[in-house]
Write a structure and sequence with these properties.
This protein is of the alpha/beta class. It has two domains: about 200 residues, Rossmann fold (3-Layer(aba) Sandwich), CATH 3.40.50; about 150 residues, Glycogen Phosphorylase B (Rossmann fold, 3-Layer(aba) Sandwich). The protein is built from 17 helices and twelve strands. Strand 10, helix 12 and strand 11 form a beta-alpha-beta unit. The radius of gyration is 22 Å and the shape is globular.
Length: about 375
């Protein structure tokens, strides 16, 4: 069935990050329109925004905490939801269905006859458990207020799509959502067509995206690489996404790279990608590496075990230690045939599962007229 009229809502930034999903969905939906959230008065004025963040910084003692509080509070959730509800009512037509990105607000603050689904990479409950900087609130009242907004949004949704199983489990355990209401569909990278070219090995180059160095396990990567260099003298570590004061043999810090073609070259020229993150909901970088046939070594946290199948298309380290990471790197760099086998399996998983076309099909299947989700809408 081709849906007649689906409206996509969320932050404009989310539309850009998921542009290939929207392109893929448009192949299965007759009319797909986008409605990004409008900026609120306190967001659109740069000086006012800076002033508010400065005040929060004084109260929290940290700019990172201030940024979290600025975005995640019950009042912001409420206002954004109310204004999006107004914008939907003012469209001049009534959408059949709404596909909403994430849960920093919802399409309707008040109950509505228009059904909506949500696409999630994480929940606040998981952030509280796994990475405190993402779950900072001024006080317990604010925290509880946000959680109430979040829970009500999930309860009102006709269906919820999650990137990984850890989010599905959180929705069930932490928010009381019934399993039948949730479909795990995965995610993909910054590409619509999978890579079909050649992939060579032997460079002994390791690639690490350290854009959020501490959260992504940068300390483990540096310590592990020092061990690797003692065993493999020609091993190289390429750090991207951040600029660090590191001056050690074998380590090259390229900083932020905006060119997609340059990043693609790094994937093709690297034997391995390492991502031993302490917290990383469903890392796009890992899926992009797999698309180019670069095996990944990841931690067992969050959605990473959903992406990497241990000892099949990469390695999932069970103990988050520099020793285990180093041993895994050394093992793979010393076994080119194993690397090639993992490379083929990584590309196969992207081709058959972790791609936007497949995900768009899964979404339309879940929301088809035969699905229990929409049977009540007839």
């Amino acid at each position: 069935m081709k849906f007649q009229n689906i409206l996509v809502t969320g932050e404009e930034l989310f539309f850009e990050r998921h542009k290939f999903l929207l392109t893929a969905m448009s192949q299965h939906i007759e009319k797909l329109q986008l409605l990004p959230r409008r900026l609120e008065w306190y967001e659109s004025n740069p000086r006012l925004r800076q002033l508010i963040k400065a005040m929060y910084t004084i109260r929290t003692g940290s700019l990172n905490k201030a940024n979290s509080v600025f975005q995640k509070n019950k009042q912001a959730f409420t206002i954004k939801s109310q204004h999006l509800e107004e914008d939907i009512k003012n469209l001049g037509y009534t959408p059949d269905f709404i596909f909403h990105f994430f849960c920093t607000f919802r399409p309707f603050w008040n109950p509505s006859d228009i059904p909506y689904s949500m696409y999630l990479d994480y929940t606040m409950a998981l952030a509280e458990q796994n990475w405190a900087p993402w779950s900072w609130f001024l006080n317990d009242k604010e925290r509880q207020g946000w959680r109430e907004c979040e829970k009500e949004s999930y309860e009102r949704a006709y269906h919820i799509f999650t990137m990984g199983n850890v989010v599905k489990n959180s929705l069930i355990k932490d928010y009381g959502i019934t399993p039948e209401k949730i479909t795990v569909i995965g995610s993909s990278g910054d590409f619509i067509e999978t890579y079909t070219g050649d992939k060579q090995f032997g460079s002994q180059q390791i690639l690490f995206n350290g854009s959020d160095f501490e959260r992504k396990g940068g300390d483990l990567v540096i310590d592990a690489f020092r061990q690797v260099r003692k065993k493999i003298k020609n091993a190289k570590l390429i750090l991207i996404g951040t600029s660090l004061s590191i001056n050690e043999d074998g380590i090259e810090n390229l900083g932020f790279i905006s060119s997609r073609s340059e990043i693609h070259k790094l994937f093709l020229n690297s034997d391995l990608v390492v991502a031993p993150a302490y917290c990383d909901p469903f890392p796009t970088f890992v899926m992009e590496a797999m698309n180019y046939g670069t095996p990944c070594i990841v931690s067992a946290n969050d959605g990473m075990p959903d992406i990497v199948d241990n000892q099949v298309n990469g390695i999932v380290i069970q103990q988050q230690s520099a020793d285990e990471l180093a041993n895994s790197i050394i093992s793979l760099l010393n076994d080119p045939m194993r690397l090639k086998c993992m490379s083929q399996e990584a590309r196969l998983k992207v081709k058959t599962k972790l791609n936007w076309n497949n995900i768009a099909v899964e979404i339309t299947k879940a929301l088809s007229s035969e699905s229990p989700v929409l049977m009540t809408l007839k």
